[in-house]
Amino acid sequence: MTAFLADLRATVFPTRTEPLGPLPPLLVALTLVTGLVDAFAYLVLGHVFVANMTGNVLLLGLSLVGAPGFSAASSLVALAAFAVGSLLGGQLSRRLGAHRGRHLALSTAVQVALFAVGTVLVAAVGVPVHQGDHEVLILLLALAMGLQNATARAMSVPDLSTTVLTQTISGLAADGVFGAHQARRLVAVGAMLLGAILGGALALHGRAFATLTIAAVVAAAVAAYAWGTTRADSRWSAVLG
Length: 241
Hints:
This protein has a single domain, classed as Growth Hormone, Chain: A. Helices cover 72% and strands 0% of the residues. It is built from nine helices and no strands. Helix 2 (23-44) runs antiparallel to helix 6 (131-155), helix 4 runs antiparallel to helix 5 and helix 7 crosses helix 8. The longest helix has 26 residues, at 100-125. It is globular.
């Protein structure tokens, strides 16, 4: 129990001496963003994910066999845009990887800009979103989430990929109550669940615009905090892997 509580504190309220610094809570916040944005995409943009690419491969398969309510075009746009975002994230990692705070700040700032454009588009066209605008929003959001995924990968924080929970949930079950990082895993699952609940509730009650707005605000807070860390030569900032 003591180890669990220590892991929980290090995940949510890390001290300055923690090996990973402020990265865990910042990545937890981005996991919340994933729940918000994927809930918006699935409910507003026609049964497509912009962060969960495993789900999109399955949805693509369903659309190809003629299952109603699924679009092969939407799934393909999401997969392609996510890949491009990941490619961009990889380029940023190679250029900025010497300081994880700077890398996270600039990457998330780009993500905020993409969310902002998406928010303006939703405000302009309204909900329900017309089919032509679907693809534009899917492209913007999947690009942002691919960038986020690649950046989280470069941060090298175990069990905080921000967009995928399969291995996290597997670890929760396989490692037992007293396994390492169990609190971190639970917090990650809870963050995505909370984001999905909030995003889903807003979308279902006619406030889809607010979902992307909240996602942009949370991501902006992450970017601002991460940028603040660039002024200090912190030990955690250069630990890659």
